[in-house]
Each structure stands twice: as structure tokens, then as C-alpha cells.
Amino acid sequence: MSFRRGQKIEVYRRSADDMWEEYMDKFIGRHGIITDPDTSINDPEALVEVSLEGIGTYRLPQDCLRILE
């Protein structure tokens, strides 16, 4: 899946990625916007920067995100 800047997303599940930490469990069910998809890397395993409503901006694994549009 390829993310683009400005896409609306939901953190819909816990990631299987080693970068996932326990505090991130509170992100599940939150919506946000992709702010930096790292398209220059073009790596589906790379983290993407997401601005989550009411929480802030984080770099998250892609397997926990789904597009809402």
C-alpha cells in the first residue's frame, strides 16, 4: 500500500513491527493525516509520519494504518 501526504487514515490495530511500543496502544481507533509518507524511500516497511487528531505527530509502522478516503 502506498500512502500520500494529506490522506486521512485510521490507526485500526496494533502493529506487528518491532517499532510498536505499549504507549502506542492508545492510538488504536484514532484518526489522522499522513504528513510525510517517505515516498523518496519507497519502502513499504518504512515508518510514515502521521498527525493524529488531538495527540500529536508520530512515525508509525504502515501495517497498523488504513486509508479512510
Topology:
Blueprint: E1 8-11, E2 31-36, E3 48-52, E4 56-60, E5 65-67
Antiparallel strand pairs: 1-2, 1-5, 2-3, 3-4
- Residue stretches low in confidence (pLDDT < 50, at least 5 long) are none
The percentage helix is under 10%
Mean pLDDT: 89
User: What is the rounded Rg?
Assistant: 11 Å
Q: Report the total helices.
A: 0
Structural class: mainly beta
Largest sheet: 5 strands, antiparallel
With strands numbered from the N-terminus, the spatial order across the biggest sheet is: 4-3-2-1-5
Cα separation of the termini:
14 Å
Question: Could you please describe the fold and organization of this structure?
Answer:
With 69 residues, the protein is mostly beta strands. 0% of the residues lie in helices and 33% in strands. The protein contains no helices and five strands. A five-stranded antiparallel beta sheet has the order 4-3-2-1-5, with no helix packed on it. A hairpin with a 3-residue loop joins strand 3 and strand 4. The two termini are 14 Å apart.
What characteristics describe this protein?
mainly beta; five-stranded antiparallel sheet; single chain; 69 residues
In brief:
With 69 residues, this protein is mainly beta. The chain contains no helices and 5 strands.
